[in-house]
Specification:
The complex is a heterodimer of chains A (about 675) and B (about 230). Chain A is an alpha/beta fold and about 675 residues long. Helix content of chain A is about 65%, strand content about 5%. Chain A is elongated, with a radius of gyration of 30 Å. Chain B has about 230 residues and is an alpha+beta fold. Chain B is built from ten helices and ten strands. Chain B has a six-stranded antiparallel sheet. A two-stranded antiparallel sheet of chain B has the order 1-2. Classes of the chains: A alpha/beta (about 675), B alpha+beta (about 230). At the A-B interface, helix 3, helix 10, helix 11, helix 17 and strand 8 of A face helix 3, helix 9, strand 8 and strand 9 of B.
């Protein structure tokens, strides 16, 4: 017997994911839907000896996608129709949720409605008549509470029963003018898993996805059908004076609110935003308090991410360095020892080092998402961000970028539109991350004693300005296009469940460890190779060994290129090493200067003696703009799904870094010729 | 539909690059109508247009050919109505649009011949054109302005933008003028003609606004709210 595929669909914020978790338990994992690159959760459950495979599609309001990412979910349903659609509905907001339910019902797929959050609906005195709703829609309706698991066993029974039934949702009557138009289009469409009426309706509304589907499944007649649909939509438009999609949405809206009134019984009370939510909003979104409170919350998140995780990070790095020490003493000297102790242990350690910070960060972000604060944060910051072609939600990744670019790139996931996400990710490395700070401190101590604070502020400020300007430039050029709609629901505040939080944090963490980890590890080994080989001649000290290694040779080879910036081969070699992670610049410079790594004060004076301040400035600028670390490249690749984007970003930042470093070097030479 | 081809044609010639917003501005219609028209033209193989990309609207070979033919017809009809008959500019523009869609090529070629005839001398040293103008000024009635076939699109806004509603006030939605994806999202969220909304909050410094519908709150940008035409409700 074949397994049964069940797709969970519904509006955002309906508790769809908690239902999914209850249904699939521990079998849930991220998976891919055919032809879909967005990460989706898959899971399975055996019911009465039969395997049911569940997929949690992204929340959506309609089959007519408003963004490219929503289109992915629609394509998922149309191109590979599930055996059963499980529509999760927020019982407290029946009017709007039913609009989507009506749209889904028209597809003619087997369907079950889970009336979720019914405890809240009951408390508000707005619990619909379940059997009446089921009868009107022609599909089974089950009352559920995802948070507590109430109604889940019933839901499972109903899913199993419906999977075999031939019953389909009831054909709905929308309007006397629209239905004949849609039926005349539908009559041209051959039967398939998705009903002809469903496809015809979407076509009349102008759905590109439905057109794609038709052109693939029915190549001969698709042109004629699309033409007929276009004419039908024109006739409806001239009849109603509004575009067909608005007409049909309006009819669905009317039908949905009529249905809601009917199943809610008694004269319907106007449902309003819960009082508590309104009270909280009047503080958190207050004209004067809103932004300061947001800043405070952000500061807290920041502090937790980078401070509270510090002891764990310390522990991890200690653990790994003692592990490396153990290897050094246990293994004989040689490439194997160095590879295991320096390359791999260092690489793995570097990956795991970020894990506590990432966990804390994602706990905070999940909390903000699950309570409903995230959309409020976007509301507060969109005014500023939109001016630079970004979305309100870009603010959080950018702020986190001051700590570490790797989790910041991950945090860009909260952006729904790919264009916004790309613009944000591409400029994130310009925000000065924490790993650059030690380098700034060392270099400014060498060249600007007494004026460190102002130089540092200038650096951080220019990074932020460059990022915002870069985003604006990107949105005007390669990422140009209409802004994605900001229109979003502000869900009522809800208490998050531990389970959901855990799921979010674990999913993201495991993702980071598994996917980014492997790439970071590979890069670490390559860097180790460059620094270790070829082996130095007998009796060479560490500085000479590094100079003669591939890294040192690359540094030498780069000298003509870097010379206009005032960099000699030493700085270039240290920069090659710092490609792995910016903080490595210090240890590399120390090795090259034949100093121990802890001698930072000495290092500063050595630098001050050897180089002109103009070179110091160029180093700072180059540090600020060049990509922070290889982990970032790995992360960008993972989050954008494209090596091309990751490498193009790397190259662009390198070129920009060189240009601006050259510019500042030259300007400084002109401004302070006496000190050169 | 043909109007759009012509607009794209002339915009391409003038500016080289055509976006949805350019067409909407040039034609004085909403971006939404433009999107729809473009989808239709795309389907008919007249323009290259894909959803969401406003950066690259070009005419196909077929579309360009059609636009060239239309441009000349349109230009002629406009001259004919405005300069020969004396129809005022706006109405002439509108009616020229309407006529070129409905008149047969034969009628048009006769009109072309007639306008050439009107410029020839008919006696007394004046042309038919002059004689007609004199006749109109002396006693003929000024031609009334015709309503275009798509009068609705020419209609001006009667309501105000949702963004102009003060905090705490209610308003009823009349029309959605937003661009395609935004309008779709608004409609799916229940912002539809006839629906009543309440302005809850406006972020400072031109930031987004929050409106309440039946049962839930929505946040939208000021510009998105401005594209929703509403009438205030007491």
């Amino acid at each position: 017997m074949n397994s049964v595929r069940v797709a969970l669909v519904g509006n955002p914020n309906t508790g769809k994911s908690s239902i999914f978790n209850r249904l699939t338990g521990s079998s849930a994992h991220e998976g891919n839907y055919p032809g879909v690159t967005v990460e989706l959760f898959c899971g399975s459950r055996t019911i009465e000896g039969r395997l049911f495979r569940f997929i949690d599609l992204p929340g959506q309001y309609s089959l007519m996608p408003a963004s490219a990412d929503e289109a992915v979910a629609v394509k998922g349903i149309l191109e590979d129709p599930p055996d059963l659609v499980l529509n999760v509905v927020d019982a407290t907001n029946l009017e709007r949720n039913l609009q989507f339910t009506l749209q889904l019902a028209q597809l003619g797929l087997r369907m079950v409605v889970a009336l979720n959050m019914s405890d809240e609906a009951e408390a508000a005195g707005r619990m619909p008549n379940v059997s009446m709703l089921s009868e009107r829609l022609g599909v089974p309706v089950v009352r559920t509470v995802g948070r507590t698991g109430e109604g889940l066993s019933e839901l499972i029974r109903v899913i199993a029963r419906t999977a075999d039934s031939d019953a389909r949702p009831r054909r709905l009557i929308f309007g006397v003018d629209t239905d004949p138009e849609i039926e005349s289009v539908a009559s041209l469409i051959p039967d398939g898993p998705i009903s002809a009426t469903g496809i015809a309706t979407m076509l009349v509304e102008g759905s590109a996805e439905a057109e794609d589907l038709l052109r693939r499944s029915f190549p001969d007649g698709a042109g004629a059908v699309v033409e007929a649909a276009g004419l039908a939509s024109e006739r409806l438009e001239s009849l109603y004076g509004d575009p067909a999609q608005i007409v049909l949405a309006g009819l669905r809206h009317g039908l949905a609110s009529g249905l809601a009134t009917e199943v809610l019984g008694r004269p319907r009370r106007r449902s309003t935003t819960p009082l508590l939510t309104r009270r909280i909003d009047s503080v958190l979104l207050n004209r004067y308090l809103g932004v300061p409170i947001f800043a405070l919350i952000m500061y807290l998140v920041f502090w937790l991410t980078f401070k509270a995780s510090a002891p764990f990070e310390h522990l991890i790095s200690r653990g790994f360095s003692s592990l490396a020490g153990l290897m050094r003493s246990a293994l004989p000297d040689g490439p194997l020892q160095s590879l295991l102790a320096d390359g791999i242990t260092g690489g793995v350690g570097g990956v795991i080092l970020y894990a506590p910070g990432i966990s804390v960060l994602f706990l905070a972000i999940s909390l903000m998402e699950d309570t409903g604060y995230m959309s409020r944060a976007a509301f507060l910051t969109d005014g500023l961000m939109h001016r630079f072609g970004l979305h309100g939600r870009s603010f959080i990744p950018m702020l986190l970028g001051f700590g570490c670019t790797v989790p910041a790139v991950l945090a860009a996931r909260t952006l729904e539109s790919r264009r916004d996400r790309l613009a944000t990710i591409l400029v994130l490395p310009l925000i000065s991350c924490g790993a650059r700070l030690p380098v700034y401190l060392m270099v400014t101590r060498a060249f600007f004693p007494g004026r460190q604070a102002i130089v540092l502020s200038l650096l951080y400020g220019s990074g932020m300005a460059l990022a915002l300007l870069g985003a604006r430039l990107l949105r005007k050029t390669v990422l140009s296009g209409e802004d994605s709609p900001f229109v979003m629901e502000l869900p009522p505040y809800r208490m998050p469940t531990l389970k959901a939080l855990w799921r979010h944090v674990w999913a993201r963490l495991s993702h980071y460890l598994a996917k980014a980890g492997t790439v970071i590890l590979a890069f670490s080994v390559v860097l180790w190779l460059l620094g270790y080989f070829p082996r130095p001649r007998e009796g060479a000290d560490r500085a000479q060994a590094l100079e003669e290694s591939f890294a040192g040779r690359i540094g030498h080879a780069l000298e003509p290129v870097m010379e206009p910036l005032g960099f000699d081969w030493r700085i270039s070699t240290a920069m090659v090493g710092a490609a792995g992670a910016k903080e490595l610049f210090i240890s590399q410079t120390a090795i090259l200067s034949s100093l121990s790594e802890d001698d930072e004060a000495d290092l500063s004076s050595v630098l001050a003696a050897r180089y002109a301040p103009a070179t110091g400035v160029a180093v700072l600028v180059f540090m600020l703009i060049s990509p922070p670390c290889l982990a970032t490249v790995a992360m960008v690749k993972k989050e954008t799904g494209s090596w091309r984007i990751a490498l193009a970003q790397y190259a662009a930042l390198m070129i920009l870094a060189w240009l601006l470093a050259f510019l500042s070097h030259t300007l400084f030479q002109i401004a302070l010729p006496d000190r050169f | 539909m043909e109007d759009y081809l012509r607009t794209i044609h002339s915009l391409t010639a003038e500016e080289g690059r055509v976006r949805v917003a350019d067409i909407a501005r040039a034609r004085g219609v909403s971006m939404a109508s433009v999107c729809e028209a473009l989808h239709r033209l795309d389907r008919e193989g007249l323009v290259n247009y894909t959803l969401g990309s406003s950066g690259s609207i070009t005419l196909t070979e077929k579309g360009a050919g059609m636009a060239r033919r239309l441009s000349s017809t349109h230009g002629f009809l406009l001259d004919f109505l405005r300069d020969l008959l004396g129809v005022e500019e706006d109405a002439a523009e509108r009616d020229a649009c309407a006529m070129e869609h409905h008149l047969s090529p034969d009628t048009i070629s006769h009109l072309v011949a007639f306008s050439q005839f009107a410029d020839s001398m008919v006696g007394g040293g004046e042309t038919l054109r002059d004689a007609f103008r004199r006749f109109e000024v002396d006693g003929g009635e000024a031609p009334g302005s015709f309503r275009g076939r798509r009068g609705r699109r020419c209609a001006t806004r009667q309501g105000i933008g949702l963004s102009e509603i003060p905090e705490g006030a209610r308003a009823r939605v009349m029309h959605l003028h937003a661009s395609c994806p935004v309008r779709r999202r608004l409609a799916d969220m229940g912002i539809l003609p006839g629906v009543e909304v309440e302005m809850i909050r406006k972020a400072p410094l031109g930031g987004p606004v929050i409106v309440a519908l039946d049962g839930f709150s929505l946040s939208l940008r000021r510009s998105e709210a401005a594209a929703v035409e509403v009438e205030p409700v007491a």
